[in-house]
Amino acid sequence: MSLHSTQKKNAEALQSFRDSDVHVHWKGAAEIVLALCTNWLDVDGSTHEMTPDKANHFRKYIEDMAEQSLRCVAFAYRNLDPKDIPSEEQRINWELPDNDLTLIGIVGMKDPCRPGVRDAVELCTNSGVKVRMVTGDNLQTARAIALECGILTDPQASAPVIIEGKVFRAYNDAEREAVADKISVMGRSSPNDKLLLVKALKKNGHVVAVTGDGTNDAPALHEADIGLSMGIQGTEVAKESSDIIILDDNFASVVKVVRWGRSVYANIQKFIQFQLTVNVAALIINVVAAISSGNVPLNAVQLLWVNLIMDTLGALALATEPPTDQLMKRTPVGRREPLVTNIMWRNLFIQAVYQVAVLLTLNFRGRDLLHLTQDTLEHSSKVFNEFNARKPEELNIFEGVSRNHLFLAVVSVTVVLQVIIIEFLGKFTSTVRLSWQLWLVSLAIAFISWPLALVGKFIPVPQTPLKNLILKCWPKKKKQGTHGVSVL
């Protein structure tokens, strides 16, 4: 008969010999099992009483091993009278006695950090992701492992930076929320302690990711914003409760999750900035031209081509940017932060104003100035603006462009199709051929969008989201209060 206790951090087994001698064997957390022992077994097989001095001697061994990041496990046993053992039917709710144990030995096991874990933790820290360790090991072992992994940097760290599970568990909800942000290491924790920590961090507004491999980790994995289970050692219950399965059980893979998650989010922002710029320019030029002259400069076929650049080709070019190291230098995005940032609004405004100004000039004076159709410059401007949208915040918009073969292919296809439409499909698209001089003029005007975007990035933007700035300027209506009325 064998039992296992997560709360007590130990396991026990019942074993009988020759139908007359029954032993109860215990193994588990060294300091917990040691506290249950009243005797200890010498190397020659003799049994001695566990005096306070001897107990302190064993505790010193445990502390020394724990400081070397060794996980300490103690083994003990006790004799049991066969008459005290219930029948098979009555053993379901029977608890094996855990008093008067005899200590057999203490073992220190080394579980070294995998190569690259320390670098992964440092990369997460630099990117604004705080790594916390919640473990069942005692505080000394947890401290040593955390220092080895880089989770802790101060060897003398004390509570609440490093805290024991039972201490955190004893706090009320308000106290847990107050100390949750400060915790880096939690030792001697139970699965419920991990769940309480996740809830406290979420209450404080954090986006929480949890890793786990056991069945007991399932509640915390389910409660977290992102649950990451282990593909090799993880149980099926843990995998079903998680959102992502780490196939190699390596923490360094978590960094890849962060990189790709930020990359997808950044690519969405790039495409939105590009799409909004195209929409604003096309909308304003058509509306202004229609109101002023009664004719729209872009017909249905030309608008279809604009939408093809904007939706299909633009999405392919911008949404497939691979993740870069620059992404890991950004701070995390809060759950309530807007998708369209103030930097995007600034870039959008500059490019849209430039495109609208050029297009309106060509619409009303183009035939007199260059004998151009309105169609040519708009499309070339959008091809150039696609490069600007690659790096909304960085000055060098060409960094890494040679490694993104799909982006270059899409831009090349766009340029080739544009030339074909202008030069060979004039009747279908209502365009005229251009001389090489006019092509150069068109490219030169479109080229201005690059230095314009560079200069615009030096314009500071407020940290407060645009929506909040507008709401501050909007007059608030006075609420009619109900004096003397209490609603429960």
Automatic annotation (TrEMBL):
* Topology in the lipid bilayer: Multi-pass membrane protein
Which keywords accompany this UniProt record?
A: ATP-binding, Calcium, Calcium transport, Calmodulin-binding, Ion transport, Magnesium, Membrane, Metal-binding, Nucleotide-binding, Translocase, Transmembrane, Transmembrane helix, Transport
Q: Name the InterPro entries for this protein.
A: ATPase_P-typ_cation-transptr_C, ATPase_P-typ_cyto_dom_N, ATPase_P-typ_TM_dom_sf, HAD-like_sf, HAD_sf, P-type_ATPase_IIB, P_typ_ATPase
Keyword Metal-binding tagged: yes
Q: Provide a Gene Ontology MF annotation, just one.
A: P-type calcium transporter activity
- Pfam families referenced in this protein's UniProt entry, alphabetically: Cation_ATPase, Cation_ATPase_C
Catalytic activity line of the entry: Ca(2+)(in) + ATP + H2O = Ca(2+)(out) + ADP + phosphate + H(+)
Going by the record, the broad EC class of this enzyme is: translocase
Q: What is this protein called?
A: Calcium-transporting ATPase
> Is Calcium a UniProt keyword of this protein?
yes
What function does this protein fulfil?
A: Catalyzes the hydrolysis of ATP coupled with the transport of calcium.
What's in the GO CC field? plasma membrane
Q: Which residues cross the membrane?
A: 406-426, 438-459
Enzyme Commission code(s) on record: 7.2.2.10
Per the UniProt record, the source organism is: Aegilops tauschii subsp. strangulata (Goatgrass)
The protein's predominant localisation is: membrane
| SUPFAM superfamilies for this protein | Calcium ATPase, transmembrane domain M (SSF81665), HAD-like (SSF56784)
Could you tell me the superkingdom of the organism this chain comes from?
Eukaryota
Family of the protein in this entry: Belongs to the cation transport ATPase (P-type) (TC 3.A.3) family. Type IIB subfamily.
Q: Where would you find this protein in the cell?
A: Membrane
What residues does the Cation-transporting P-type ATPase C-terminal domain cover? 296-459
